[in-house]
Write a structure and sequence with these properties.
- This protein is mostly helical.
- The protein is 49% helix and 11% strand.
- Strands 1-4 form a two-stranded antiparallel sheet. The chain has a two-stranded antiparallel ribbon with strand order 2-3. Strands 5-8 form a two-stranded antiparallel ribbon.
- A hairpin with a 2-residue loop joins strand 2 and strand 3.
- The protein is globular.
- The two termini are 33 Å apart.
- 24% of the residues are buried.
- Protoporphyrin IX containing FE binds next to helix 5 and helix 10.
Length: 302
């Protein structure tokens, strides 16, 4: 999914379209090779991905160095964007981030924080288009929230907490199609599992898709059913779209806010038809509808 202008602007205040397009196309090559066999040989996706990541880092380093000069000359402010913030804040020991740390963090956030949320929103739109009964319930919940507010009043944190049914729907979308299909761990000790030994030091891939689609964890696992998340919800560690343990997603609550705020605004203003009913989803590496999910919006005034 191409990087959008707002995210680049928010992170680094870049506005020049060619510059953004260049970073965007490198980013897409980088993304395509992230979950590939690590064969570092010309022609493989992994190789191209590593090259693209190095090119993005070099580009980011140039931007970072230029911004440092602007900050020193008073031509940029520390609150301008994420980049200025990272350049001017220090940790509790007074140590500043290095330029390399900043470039790595921006690259991580672009990857971890952008496509995951856009994919969740895309699949949410698809699921609501396929399940009008669920759409109606989401609409009711969102309208109850809007009607309790003054005209033009923006959403508040308390409103997000009231979106319980809507979040159950988003959760069910992420159960069936987790935006991050899994991640990696390293075995710190020898592990015995199902009669096999995973030796210390081996890399392990854990899969959220397989865990979420296992009928031992979810009855009739292929069925779309947001009520699974009512009450106490799934057994711990059977539902892991954000991972688990100490390296669990840092942006989980921000993602919830982002997706629910988007959902509130689109549902309150539109209903929609899917132009390709039953459009297939492909994983490359994130789940995306193969034709880009064309829809027809119908504004409503409720
Ligand atoms: C629906 C949206 C999102 C999903 C499904 C998602 C999913 C994940 C997953 C599966 C991991 C790996 C966790 C693990 O290894 O146990 C992860 C890590 C991470 N995510 Fe997210 N994420 C989302 C949104 C975001 C956002 C919006 C941000 C930042 C603004 C973010 C920042 C991060 C970071 C920094 C990590 C690395 C944490 C670490 O290694 O300690 N994520 N995310």
């Amino acid at each position: 999914m191409p990087l959008s202008l707002p995210v680049i602007y928010l992170f680094m205040s870049l506005e020049e379209p060619n510059h953004i397009a260049k970073l965007g196309s490198l980013f897409n090559i980088f993304l395509k090779g992230i979950i590939e066999l690590p064969i570092n040989f010309p022609g493989t996706r992994f190789y191209s991905s590593k090259k693209a990541a190095a090119a993005i880092s070099a580009e980011l380093m140039t931007i970072i160095k230029a911004r440092r000069v602007e900050l020193e000359e008073g031509k940029a402010s520390s609150s301008q964007d994420l980049l200025s913030h990272l350049l001017t804040c220090s940790d509790k020991n007074g140590k500043y981030f290095t330029e390399k740390d900043i470039a790595n963090n921006i690259l991580l956030l672009l990857f971890a924080g952008h496509d995951t949320s856009t994919v969740s929103i895309t699949l949410l739109i698809k699921s609501l288009g396929e399940h009008p009964d669920v759409y109606d319930k989401v609409l009711k919940e969102q309208l109850d929230i809007s009607m309790a507010k003054e005209a033009g009043e923006l959403l508040k944190w308390e409103d997000i907490q009231k979106m319980k049914y809507s979040w159950n729907v988003v959760s069910e979308v992420m159960r069936l199609h987790p935006p991050a299909t899994g991640a990696y761990r390293e075995a710190l000790v020898d592990i015995e599992y199902a009669g096999y030994t995973i030796p210390k030091g081996w890399k392990i891939h854990w899969s959220s898709s397989l865990t979420h689609n296992d009928s031992a964890n979810f009855e009739d696992a292929a069925r779309f059913d947001p009520s699974r998340f009512e009450g106490t919800g799934p057994t711990p560690f059977t539902y892991v779209p954000f991972g688990g343990g100490p390296r669990m997603c840092l942006g989980k609550e921000f993602a919830r806010l982002e997706v629910l705020a988007f959902l509130h605004n689109i549902v309150a203003n539109f209903k929609w038809d899917l132009l390709i009913p039953g459009e297939k989803i492909e994983y490359d590496p994130m789940p995306i509808p193969v034709k880009g999910l064309p829809i027809r919006l119908h504004p409503h005034h409720v």
